[in-house]
Each structure stands twice: as structure tokens, then as C-alpha cells.
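Me: Here is a favour to ask of a fellow structure person. Could you put it straight underneath, so I can go through it closely?

Assistant:
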Amino acid sequence: MDLSVKLSTLNSQLSALNLSEHVQLPGFKPYDELPVYYALANAFVHASTTEQWGLVVNEAIASGLPVIVSERCGCVPELVQGNGFTFDPTNEHELTARLLEMASLSDEKRKHLGDNSHRIAANLGSERFGEGLEGAVNMALAPRRFGLMDRALLLAATMYGR
């Protein structure tokens, strides 16, 4: 199904449920316009069923938003820590519960979650990236000690010509 058709269908459902004032689905926006949309939001939802990382969550937390993120998103262990909720993306009732939970938070509590997002994002700068990259390079270059399983696999590979 075409994205514009999906958005139209979802917007119709939001209208029928009287939620149009509370939920916005702006569709694709150029990168330079994203800060405006993040600034207008009260929270950010990432409901992907499969996601290696989910860089958009980095953007949302850097904008100080509380988040609701699919537990199938690779960034959850690093980025969702006291700044929002996770959920099983195959369970619509669980997502509904998290949405209602976020909507029912006081402004003070939502601000607290957003402040936690800022704190987490502050630890994700280029210095930390460089340290992680350096650690990965050092690990890759370190002499490796062959264990029993490594020897068995090497022996099997040489015996069977692979």
C-alpha cells in the first residue's frame, strides 16, 4: 500500500475517533524541518516491528522528548532508560496502554522524562563515538587466543577442504 494511502486511512481513523487534535502524522519531512516538528511534540512514538537501531529515536531524545519505543528497536537498551516506555509492537493493546499512560502523565512528569532524554543524549556525542570506535579497532587488532572450539572448527575445515 502506498504511503499516502496509509496516511489518508490513518488520518480518517483519527478523525473518526476524535483524536485528530492529539495525534499528528506529518509524513516525510526534509531533515532541516525536523527540529520544528520535534519542538511541537509532547512525546515521540517509534512503533517499528523491526529496526537495527532507530536513529530517529536519537533525534527525539536530543530534542528532549519522552519516548515510547518498540522493544524490537536496537537502540532500546542504550536510549530508553527512565525517559519513556517500551512495548511489544505485535501487541496493539500494549501500545494503546503505553499511549494512554504517556497521555495521562502530568506536565511535570513528562518534563522529567524529557530531561532524562536530554541527559541520555548528552552522553552520545562524537567523543563517545570515537572511544567506541577505538575500542572496536583495538579489539579487532588484538592477538586472538584459539580455544578448543576454534581448533576443532579449523581442523574440520581443513579435513573437509573448506
